[in-house]
């Protein structure tokens, strides 16, 4: 798929979601906003997974972006949502640029556990720090966009539109990046990192870049979440939050960028309705759903639309090979 086709498709999807959002009830509007803000964090994990690694510490950047926004609002009075989202992404990206070269030295379970350890270190600091709200966190007022205070139903839609546009642009950029030279080399790293080194590419450099990009996406997601919730707390950096992002990436599968947001929305809906109809055992209902997905859809949601595409040429090649064998006999 060419860049022009990707761009046209991204514009069409964003426009359709903005139009649909005007018809959604407030509870569903908020649910989709949260799914979009969490999905962009899992999008960063997808960039890392394409290189054969899994980060269990994406909550680190999610929390850094969220706390950067919350502290800026409460300490310096900045309220413009566009500026705050950019600030959250920049703060998390700075942390990712510092920690990325360190983590890129490791692979496999060591990479995952070290990233998780960094996230839990931040969680411990946030829980013990009274200046950052301690274990309860703190609230922030509603943001503004170009001087307009986001209040009421119109404000809810504005936050939804902001999340859709920001995550849509992020998905568009990631789709282009995965088709670039570095994006394709990342797939080669997953297959055979030693051969990539022999060909002259730096495995550590590419994975450190992917980790920094994932950090920026995590910070953007944290910023959007804080603006929608109006609250920040240390659980943003807790391991269960990071695990949720990893699950969304696994549920979506590695084949499709757009599937990340579909998987995030599915998870939010299942969790919301499980909590509504099974208030005492909603974790059990959610766990059963996760097991069903792993058993019956191992390729993820992204494999649904591409299964037929991959199956057809395979059949053609098999038929051609069969005929060639018959002719040889």
Topology:
Layout: H1 3-21, H2 26-49, H3 58-76, H4 81-103, H5 108-128, E1 138-139, E2 144-145, E3 148-149, H6 152-178, H7 181-191, H8 193-198, H9 203-229, E4 231-232, H10 239-252, H11 258-277, H12 282-296, H13 302-328
Antiparallel strand pairs: 1-4, 2-3
Helix pairs in contact: 1-6, 2-6, 2-9, 2-10, 2-11, 3-4, 3-5, 3-9, 4-9, 6-9, 10-11, 11-12
Write structural notes for this entry.
With 329 residues, this protein is mainly α. The chain has one domain. The chain contains 13 helices and 4 strands. It has a two-stranded antiparallel sheet. A hairpin with a 2-residue loop joins strand 2 and strand 3.
Give the low-confidence spans: 307-329
> Multimeric state of these chains?
single chain
* Count of the domains: 1
Distance between the termini: 40 Å
Element order, helices and strands? HHHHHEEEHHHHEHHHH
Number of strands: 4
The residue-averaged pLDDT reads 86
Task: Note the main sheet.
Answer: 2 strands, antiparallel
- Distinct helical segment count: 13
Helix content: over 70%
Estimate the strand proportion. Answer: under 5%
Shape: globular
The whole-angstrom Rg is: 21 Å
Q: Can you list the strand order of the major beta sheet? A: 1-4
């Amino acid at each position: 798929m060419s860049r022009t086709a990707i761009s046209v498709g991204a514009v069409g999807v964003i426009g359709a979601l903005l139009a649909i959002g005007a018809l959604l009830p407030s509870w569903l509007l908020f649910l989709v906003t949260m799914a979009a803000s969490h999905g962009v964090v899992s999008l960063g994990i997808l960039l890392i997974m394409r290189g054969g690694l899994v980060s269990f510490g994406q909550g680190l950047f999610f929390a850094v972006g969220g706390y950067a926004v919350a502290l800026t609002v409460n300490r310096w009075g900045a309220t413009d949502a566009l500026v705050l989202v950019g600030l959250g992404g920049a703060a998390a990206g700075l942390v990712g640029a510092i920690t990325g070269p360190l983590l890129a030295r490791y692979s496999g379970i060591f990479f995952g556990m070290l990233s998780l350890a960094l996230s839990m270190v931040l969680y411990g600091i946030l829980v013990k720090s009274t200046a950052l709200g301690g274990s309860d966190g703190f609230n922030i007022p509603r943001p503004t966009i170009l001087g307009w205070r986001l209040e009421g139903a119109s404000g809810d839609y504005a936050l939804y539109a902001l999340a859709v546009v920001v995550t849509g642009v992020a998905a568009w950029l990631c789709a282009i990046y995965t088709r670039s030279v570095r994006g394709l080399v990342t797939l080669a790293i997953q297959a055979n990192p030693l051969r990539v080194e022999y060909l002259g590419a730096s495995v550590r450099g590419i994975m450190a870049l992917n980790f920094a990009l994932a950090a920026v996406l995590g910070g953007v997601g944290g910023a959007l979440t804080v603006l929608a919730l109006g609250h920040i707390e240390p659980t943003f950096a807790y391991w269960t939050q990071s695990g949720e992002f990893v699950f969304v990436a696994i549920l979506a599968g590695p084949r499709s960028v757009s599937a990340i947001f579909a998987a995030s929305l599915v998870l939010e809906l299942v969790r919301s309705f499980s909590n509504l109809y099974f208030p005492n055992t909603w974790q059990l209902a959610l766990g059963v759903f996760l097991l069903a997905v792993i058993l019956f859809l191992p390729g993820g949601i992204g494999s649904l639309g591409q299964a037929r595409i991959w199956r057809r040429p395979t059949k053609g090649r098999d038929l051609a090979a069969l005929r060639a064998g018959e002719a040889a006999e």
